Amino acid sequence: MDTSTADPATLLDTLDRRLVCALQVDGRAGTGRIAEVLGVSARTVTRRLGRLLGSGTVQVVLMPDVRDRAVGALLLRVRVLRGRTDAVAHALAARPDVPFVDVMLGGQEVGAVVLTDAEARDHLLYGLLPATGAVLETDVHAALHLFADAGRWRSGHLTDEEAAALAPAPPTTAPPGRDDLDRRLLDLLGRDARRPHAALAAATGIPESTVRRRLDRLAAGGLLRTHATIDPRLLGMAVDANLWLDVPPGRLAEVGDALAGHPQVHGVLATSGRSNLMAAVFCPDHAGLYRFVTETLGPLGVDRAETAIVARAVKRAGVLPGGPHRR
């Protein structure tokens, strides 16, 4: 994604934006349920969602589960030789343990999120990246606490009442142990989280009633969190930026929680490294980013903010824009 303003003719209309926001709340919500909450006909919802999903404008996938990984999430800032950015970005994006990859404005930095075990982490950080002549330097930040991830972002086109009516039931149990069938179902939903029960039953060769029971169990354990991936420019958000913040330790939790609830923020993590908080934000333009820094961060008492603007999203929640899904 570049930072130029999108052609207004390509922007989604109000109903499409509301449908996208409904999928952000619950990516597996049925068309009838969405139609009832939004006050439109089921036929209209079916037609509109068919166009949005069929064209790849919106892709609904499962959010990666950090709890599956022994070392949690790592945030990488990889500085590369000019002209070699695409090669490094796409090499990282090809890895199934890297769900997010961005090329930053200026073309000499690649940002990535890594979810892996210790062995694969060490091979990447101490073997593959240093051996790549295009890589000049790598900063590694461990995610110490997750305040909000991309799966929690809402584009703000639903009322609070509508969002509450669409919201799935919160988890009621700890994440359950998973057998081969659970992993198969999660893999299928990882490619398309809107697959209906019947399609999952056909793909796995098990009864639909068994699929329903398994998915209910996985949902109760918080393993069916979805993410509706869309180019934010279509929602009027032309600028994506990562803000690396210095916050007094005594206020870190307060500031993280405040940013997690902001409608422009699509990720907030407490991190190791020179900065102790990273927030990813969508803004309509550079003036909107300036207002966010001055009017939102300023009153929160942030000591310092480094702003890194995303020039292009290469991979989001395991999705390669315009390409196949990767897990």
TrEMBL record:
- Coiled-coil residues: none
- InterPro entries according to UniProt: AsnC-type_HTH_dom (IPR000485), Dimeric_a/b-barrel (IPR011008), Tscrpt_reg_AsnC-like (IPR019888), Tscrpt_reg_AsnC/Lrp_C (IPR019887), WH-like_DNA-bd_sf (IPR036388), WH_DNA-bd_sf (IPR036390)
The keyword Manganese appears for this protein: no
Q: Which residues form the HTH asnC-type domain?
A: 179-238
Domain of life, source organism? Bacteria
The answer on whether this UniProt entry bears the keyword Zinc reads: no
* Keywords from the named record: DNA-binding, Transcription, Transcription regulation
Protein's recorded name? Lrp/AsnC family transcriptional regulator
What organism is this sequence from? Kitasatospora paranensis
